[in-house]
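Hey, resending since the last one bounced:
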Amino acid sequence: MGVEQAERSKSKQKTTRRDKETRGDETTPSRRSLSARRSHSEHHGEPKNAGLTQEEVWAYGLGLFGIGLGLTELMTPRRLARMIGAPSGHNGLIRLMGLREVAAGVGILTQRSPTTGLWMRVAGDVADLACLGAAFLSSRSDRGKLTTAMMTIAGGTLVDMLTAQQLSRGVTTRNGTIPITAAIIIDCDREELYHHWRELTNLPQFMKHLVRVDVKDDRRSHWVARGPVGSTVEWDAEITEDRLNEYIAWCAVEGAEVDHRGTVRFEPAIGGRGTIVTVNMQYRPPFGTLGAAVVAWFGEDPNQTITMDLRRFKQIMETGEVVTTEGQPAGRDEIPSWKYDQAAR
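The structure tokens again:
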């Protein structure tokens, strides 16, 4: 009896463990589905990371420049002071600034990510500007040369800040193009989602930056979007591939004001729990990563924009409207409500 009871107990434990594993699998379809989707994207030629990004190239170039400048400050502080119009007698301070430049440059080149070293450069640039500002008050300084030096350092500070900002945001520009990928699971049939998206005049409902889309024919359309600082941009686009209920690809026509291309894919989620909607876009900002950073300063981050567009698409398809807290105390009129925001994540 004791042996039989022990065997029944072990069998019951195994069954319970299998049930837990099964339930665990059923509660995590999104993570597995999105992982499989990423592999599928790479296999079919969609953007894949390889080599240095444009942001990293800028960072390493700034690091090398900083080391060269720092060595100059360490070895010839008196000559450098005369060159920039600073008063004499501050060789020790100039050497200290050179040591900081070398340390920041070495940090950029040797650390796994150059972001920290680049922000060190930004802090050093601010300190350099403060020192030159103090030197400007001296009657022994050449204010004309100091003005030129301060303008040069201010320009370098701007480049350092923009590059550091892009690295901190995780932007990866390659060949002047920023790849953007966002995905979400929507509790609707993919046929319904496909047809709503394929009717291009519906896009401004959930793409906040779009003013309107005028359909010219089955393939071509005219897009009007909001730009930074209240401006608008317009361009023509055409659908390059269209697979019913599965996939839509489009691109701006040659010579368009906005250079971009993108795809949207509709795939059933595991377990029949809705549809995975995945958007892949390639956006070429003017002046590459620095141009994208300037645009981001005006609140136009393409990655965040596409993510929020998909969340609004989810709301429209599941509830029929975009839920916001606009007009409520402490409301956020730019993004979905807090409760839905949490659920969407």
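The chain has two domains: 54-169, 177-324+332-344.

Sorry for the duplicate.
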